[in-house]
Amino acid sequence: MSDRTPGEVVRSVTSAFERTFGGAPTGVWSAPGRVNLIGEHTDYNGGLCLPIALPRRTYAAAARRDDGVLRIASVQQDGVVEVALDDVSPELPGGWGSYVAGVLWSLRRDGLSVDGLDVLVDSTVPLGAGLSSSAALECAVAAAASDLFDLDLLGSPEGRERLAARCVEAENVIAGAPTGGMDQSASLLCEDAAALLLDCRSGETRHVPFDLDAAGHVLLVTDTRAEHALVDGQYAARRDACEQAARELGIETLREIDPAGLDAALERLGSDEVRRRVRHVVTEIERVTLAVAALESDDLEEIGRLFDASHASLRDDYEVSCEELDLATATARSEGALGARMTGGGFGGSCIAIVSAADAEAVATAIATAFRGEGLTAPVSFTVTASGPAARDS
Ligand code: GLA
Questions:
Q1: pLDDT at site 275
Q2: Is there a domain that residue 1 lies in?
């Protein structure tokens, strides 16, 4: 899956489109998955996060229709999903097709003139690995719709932000996942060799150079293959706890808590569990600011320390880690990684580690050996570089 070049995927998704829909697509668009370097569970708290886009992308071969019908198929799924745009709802079409249909539904709700589509999807983003395969799918479809319906939203940062907002609404309302928006912004706004500093309160963004190669290091991603049982309910529960805490404190979002006033704010909260959730969010937002400063002064050791502190906070205070993520990060550290942490929502999914290029293979092997020793499913490790955003490929 991952070994295919972009050109190969474009060719194969084009011929799959022709086989399925009996004509040529107008073009192929793609959008990347992401890893978040740091700033986890901060986006829905008006906080800061720092994702990069992955070289792994979801591709959508598409052609417009003029009858209000959406037909969707995927190389990774059987069958064709068909739905009239007027009928799209949280119930229809349901399943993975709701991520595609939801984007068109949301673009229309935003007053944009959008008709039906035929869409054939293929992806090199591993599914269910916490690398935002769903945001990559939404953003690839949004990019296709922008070009096919002359919305002209890909050409400017403002247009891309508008597309990201539509993709978030699709995911929240039609797919029913109460996620915070980081993933869609990453997929539409990230640039090559840079991380995206995203301020989720003001909406401001800044590109921060991120190129570990120059320092002889790599970012090693390990998909733990851990199942995301209960992920939706647990994610929503964390979000609810934060919103409840903000209400108790009489503030709009937890971003308003000054780190210097954290202890005083915590004393005003009723439960120990909520106090720990809030402590994670406030300290994590601060770690993002520190990580940006460290990146700008090429202080990789400090970034490693911040990765480790972030993981401990997510494990102990936010309680979204799991055995596999703890084992992978601990093994990476003991094999010489500068730092390691879970990335994404947690409860399974992937971890990231900064390791010297020379050690990457040994670290990946050590993680696999540790998993075997515990009788866990074999993990999959690979290195990634910060890559470009959603775009037209052909
Ligand atoms: C998931 C969500 C994001 C974000 C992360 C945690 O990836 O989609 O919005 O909340 O979890 O940082």
A1: 98
A2: no
Does the global pTM surpass 0.70? yes
Among 390, 356, 340, smallest CA distance to 379 is for: 340
Domain identity same for 255 and 136? no
What does the buried/exposed string (b/e) look like for 216-246 if buried means 16 or more CB atoms within 10 Å of the residue's CB?
Answer: ebbbbbbbbbbebeebeebbeebbebbeebb
Range of the domain at 50: 6-209+388-392
Arithmetic mean of pLDDT over the chain: 96
User: Which three-class secondary structure state does DSSP give residue 208?
Assistant: strand
Residue 158 lies in a domain: yes
pLDDT at residue 1 is higher than 70? no
Q: What tokens appear for 38 in the block?
A: 């740091």
Ligand 1 contact via 40 beta carbon (within 6 Å): yes
Residue 335 to residue 16: CA distance in whole angstroms: 43
- Neighbour-count burial of 64, counting CB atoms closer than 10 A to its CB (0-12 exposed, 13-18 middle, 19+ buried): middle
User: How many domains does the chain divide into?
Assistant: 2
- Ligand 1: atom nearest CA of 177 is 8
What local confidence, expressed as pLDDT, does residue 232 receive?
66
CB 180 near ligand 1, within 6 Å: yes
Same domain (yes/no): 22, 163: yes
DSSP annotation string for 176-189: -----SHHHHHHHH
